[in-house]
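If you are new to this repository, start here. Below is one unmodified record pulled from the training split, so you can see the exact layout before writing a loader.
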Amino acid sequence: MLTAHMVEHEFLMVAAAPLLVLSRPLTAFLWALPIGARRWLGTLATAPPIAALWIALTNASVATLIHVATIFAWHTPSLFEAATSNPLLHKLQHATFLVTALLFWWAILNLPKRQLGVGAAHLFATMMAMSLLGALLTLTPRLWYPSYSAPLLGFTPLEDQQLAGLVMWIPGCAVYASAALVTLAVWIAASGRHQLQLVKIEVLPTG
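And here is the target side for that same chain:
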């Protein structure tokens, strides 16, 4: 079912990716390696070209654009059908979903507190883009992916596609919306504390 396939995609992008970023497993992975390998990887990571590339890819605007563009590209009928029929391409599809989602969530979740408003804006923008794609899948009157043209579990192919669109549109987008609201709340609270500190400094006697 296309719906099951969509659930798999959503788990990769809105569950696995943010949880991996929050768990910060790289340190544990590095300690599992021999000391020589750790030193080599540390030197490689701090090399100017690699460091510059990492900074560019984890810029919130760049990471958002890459993530959204990857999702839309793979859901075009030609690429989606090709991935369905080619196992290697299918693995590449899932790998790019996960990698671009990791870049996106890393960029958002590692923003300094003073920039969390920007992070919330990027989360809302991603939610809107995903809502658009989910709505198109749900409301279109024609079948996008002929590979899923056989009735299954009592669903017609078009009903399966509509349900898949709803999975992306409702629970998938709800994660982005919830993260945006939490990010916005943290930003507002941090801004309030900062303003309070400024007021306290201004009213202190100057000696």
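Two things worth knowing about this chain: Residues 2-203 form one domain. The longest helix spans residues 157-203.
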